[in-house]
Amino acid sequence: METDSLPIYLLFAIFASSSILEASINGGGLRSKQENPIKRSDFPPGFLFGAATSAYQVEGAYLEDGKSLSNWDVFCHSNGNGCGENGENGDFADDHYHLFKKDIELMHSLGLKSYRFSISWSRILPRGRFGEVNPSGIMFYNEIIDDLVLKGIEPFVTIHHQDFPQELERKYGSWLDTQMQEDFVLFAETCFKSFGDRVKYWVTINEPNLVSEMSYEKGTYPPAHCSQPFGNCLAGNSDVEPLRAMHNMLLAHGKAAKLYHERFQPKQGGSIGLVAHCFMYEPLTDSDFDRKAAERAMTFNIGWSFDPPIFGDYPQEMRECHGSELPRFSPEEKNLMKNSIDFIGINHYSAIYAKDCTNSSCLNGCDRAIKAFVEITGERDGQLIGEPTSMPRFFVVPRGMEEIVNYVKTRYSNLPMFITENGYSSPNVQDVEVDEILNDIKRIEFHETYLESLAKAIRNGADVRGYFIWSLMDNYEWTYGYNVRFGLYYVDYKTFERVPKLSARWYQDFVKNNSLDHHPPLRTDT
Ligand code: BGC
C-alpha cells in the first residue's frame, strides 16, 4: 500500500487495525477516509473548533468546598431509579474538579480554540435564592476561566446543564414552578457578574426540550415524573408537565437574557444563546402522512425550543394540538421572549425516521401529543438508517447535519448557529480491550463525515460559527453510566488517567491543519 501521503493518525491506525474501510450503510454511513478528507481550511477563518463537557458529568467532588447536593446527586443515591446500569453516579466522575489544570493542558495540546463547559449551580449557590453565594465555587470557575484565557482557549459557558440544588426541588418542585425562573435569573446574574469580563459566549440552558422529555414525560431523569403509558413513576402527568417545565425553562432563559442584554452585554460585549437537542426527522415512507409527521416532529422539537425565544410564541401547530394544556405567554412575556437569543445552539447526533400515528396504529407506543403523534424508529424495511451506536436513538447519519442546519437556517432566517455538541460512542461490548477503545477509527470517520456535511451547509450560506465535539473525555453518561464513552480521551476510572484515543490525534491534526509531525506530543495526565 502507498502510505507516504497518509496522515500519521491513519498510518498508526493501519498498523493497529486491519480494517479501516467500512461498508457503506444505506448510502449515508461510513466510508474510507483516505481520499480528500475534510480540512480545517474548508471552514471560515475564526471558526471555533472545540470540545464540550458538563459539570455533573466530569467534575466529581460532589460534596467539596461548600457544594450542596444537586438533583442528580440525590437521584443517583436513592434506590431503584437506575443511575447507570451498575448503579453508577457522578460522585467522582472524571475528578475534573481536581484535574482541571491538566485537562486544560490536554485541550491546549490539541490546539482547541474553545472549551464548552457548564457551571454547577449547587457549587455557586448551594441553596439557590435561600442562601449565600459560595466563594469557593466562584474561585473554582475563575481558575478554569483564567487558565483557558491564558492558553488562548475561548470559554463557552453553559449556565445550566441539568444539575441544580436539590433544595429547589424539595421547596417548590423546581421547573414545575414559576419560582424556578427567579432562582435561575439569580444564578445567571451571579455568573455574568463573576465571569462575564472574560466569558464572551453564554448558553443559558442546555437542551430544555430533552430535559422536559426525560424528566417529566419518560421519568428517567430526576425528578422521575411520568404517568402511564410512558412509564411507572410515583408522580407526574406526562401530557402536561413536560409543557409546563419547558415553559418555565424558556421564561427563565428569556429573563436571564434580558438581564444580560440590558445590564451586562453593553459593557462586556459577549453574546447569549440557547441550546436544543436537535434530531433530524425524516419521513419513514413516502406517504403524505409520514411526510407531515416528520414536519410535525421538527416543529414540536425545534419550533418548541426556538420559536419562543426568536418569534415570541409557540408554533401555531402546537397550540392547535395541545389546546389549553400548552401554557400561554402574556403580551409582556412575548415581548421579553422575542429576539432573546444572539445565536442558536444545535446539539446534533442523529437523524431518525418519523412515522405518523394520527391515522395508523403505532407498534411501539406513540409519543402522543408531546411529540406530535409521531413514532420514531431507526429502521425502515429491515434496514437501519445508519450504523448503530451505544445510544439507542443515535445512528450514524452524516447527511442529517446538513439537513438540520439547513432547516434551522431557513426557519430562523440564518441567525448565527453553533454546533454545540456532536459526537460518537461505539456500541457497548462487554470486556472490550482498552487498545480497541483507543483505536477509535469509527469516531474519526464519524467526525469527518459529519464535518463534510456541515461544510456543505456552510458553503451554501449557513451562518455556522463553531463546532464542539462531545466530548473532550469519556465521562458520566447520565443513566447510561460509564460504559458509554464519547471522549477524545479515554479515562481510566480507577486512576483517572486520561489517554489520547486516535481521534484526539486526528482532531489535533485537523484543528492545526498540518501534519502530526509538527505538533507537540499529546498530553496525558501522567
Ligand atoms: C447532552 C449531554 C450528553 C450527550 C450524549 C446531550 O444530549 O447535552 O449531556 O452526554 O447528549 O448523550
Span of the ends, CA to CA = 36 Å
* Rounded radius of gyration (Å): 22 Å
In CATH, the topology is named TIM Barrel
- Shape category: globular
SS-derived structural category:
alpha/beta
Helical content class: 25-40%
Q: Tell me the name of the CATH homologous superfamily.
A: Glycosidases
What is the average of the pLDDT values? Answer: 90
Strand order of the largest sheet: 1-2-3-4-5-7-14-15
> What is the tally of helical segments?
17
Secondary structure: elements and pairs:
Elements: H1 8-16, E1 48-52, H2 55-58, H3 71-77, H4 96-110, E2 114-118, H5 121-124, H6 135-150, E3 154-160, H7 166-172, H8 179-195, E4 201-206, H9 208-217, H10 241-268, E5 271-277, E6 280-283, H11 288-311, H12 316-322, H13 331-337, E7 343-347, E8 351-356, E9 374-377, E10 379-380, E11 383-384, E12 387-388, E13 395-396, H14 399-411, E14 417-422, H15 434-438, H16 441-459, E15 464-470, E16 489-492, E17 497-500, H17 502-512
Parallel strand pairs: 1-2, 1-15, 2-3, 3-4, 4-5, 5-7, 6-8, 7-14, 14-15
Antiparallel strand pairs: 8-9, 10-11, 12-13, 16-17
Helix pairs in contact: 1-17, 4-6, 8-10, 9-10, 14-16
Bound molecules: beta-D-glucopyranose (BGC).
Residues 54, 57, 206-207, 210, 277, 347, 391, 421, 470, 477 line the site of beta-D-glucopyranose.
